[in-house]
Structures are given as structure tokens and as C-alpha cells.
Amino acid sequence: MASKGGGGSTRTYSGFATMYLRMPMSSSTLPVQGQCTVDDRRVTLKFPFTGIEFDLPGQPQENRNQFDFTIRSAKGDMTMTIGYVSELRAFTGTGRMEVGGDDSHDDAPVLTFCFYSSDSPLNRLPRL
């Protein structure tokens, strides 16, 4: 839901997220559905048994070209790609873990998420 903050230009978005868990001893992944919220630059992804929080390099800007940035964790670096879909008035994100030390990435995403303001057509979708 979009809302203007009290004195600043803070904007809040909501949406959905999917985390892809790798199954042990298999090449299969298990998708886990969750929620996504963005408050100013802070992204919060909530899943049934865990959550992930990180800051965007800047506030989301509509009609901005796709951009990448890296977040670091105890398990390694993850490259996040954020884009904007103007027809839906929504932002999309994908997280891929870096494999090895040579700046290469696994083709399969670890996370995908989407967030949008209250004027997006995606707000008409039912909430989980």
C-alpha cells in the first residue's frame, strides 16, 4: 500500500516473495511463498520460518532501468537485480548466489519478489 510518510517522502510498497530451497541430495528446489514489504529503502521478505531484510541502494524509482547490487551474508554474496514493469506499475527483484570466487552466479534464483504501490493493478490480486 502506498502512503506518504508524515514529514518526509517515505513511500511504502507491498507485494509477494518466493524463496527457492534446494533439496538435499537432489537437483530439485522447493518454492516457499512469502510476503514482501518496502519501507523507504528497507526491503523485508517474510517467509513461514525465516525472514530476510536488506536496504536498496536508493528509494525505488518508477521507470528506472534494471540495476544490480550485491548484499553480503555469512553464507556468501548475493547479487540482487531490481527492475520495473511499467504496465503493472510494479518492481521485480531476483537474487542469485555467487558461486565460487570468480564472480559467476548460479543460473537458478534463490529469491524472487515483486512489490508495488496501492495504485498498481496487482493490488486486485488476492493476498495469501
What does the model show?
The chain is an all-beta fold. The protein has a single domain (12-118), classed as Porin, CATH 2.40.160. The protein has no helices and 9 strands. It has strands at residues 12-22, 29-39, 42-46, 51-55, 67-73, 76-85, 90-99, 104-105, 111-116. Strands 1, 2, 3, 4, 5, 6, 7, 8 and 9 form a 9-stranded antiparallel sheet that branches. A hairpin with a 2-residue loop joins strand 2 (29-39) and strand 3.
Structural domains: how many: 1
Oligomeric state of the chains in view: single chain
Helix content: under 10%
Give the overall form. globular
Q: What is the CATH level 1 assignment? A: Mainly Beta
CATH fold label: Porin
The main sheet comes to: 9 strands, antiparallel
Report the β-strand fraction as a percent range: over 45%
**Broad structural category:** mainly beta
Straight-line N-to-C gap = 15 Å
Spell out the helices and strands N to C: EEEEEEEEE
Key traits:
128 residues, mainly beta, Porin, globular, disordered N terminus
How is this fold's topology laid out?
Layout: E1 12-22, E2 29-39, E3 42-46, E4 51-55, E5 67-73, E6 76-85, E7 90-99, E8 104-105, E9 111-116
Antiparallel strand pairs: 1-2, 1-9, 2-3, 3-4, 5-6, 6-7, 7-8, 7-9
Summarize the structure.
The chain has 128 residues and is mainly beta. It has strands at residues 12-22, 29-39, 42-46, 51-55, 67-73, 76-85, 90-99, 104-105, 111-116. The chain has one domain: Porin (Beta Barrel).
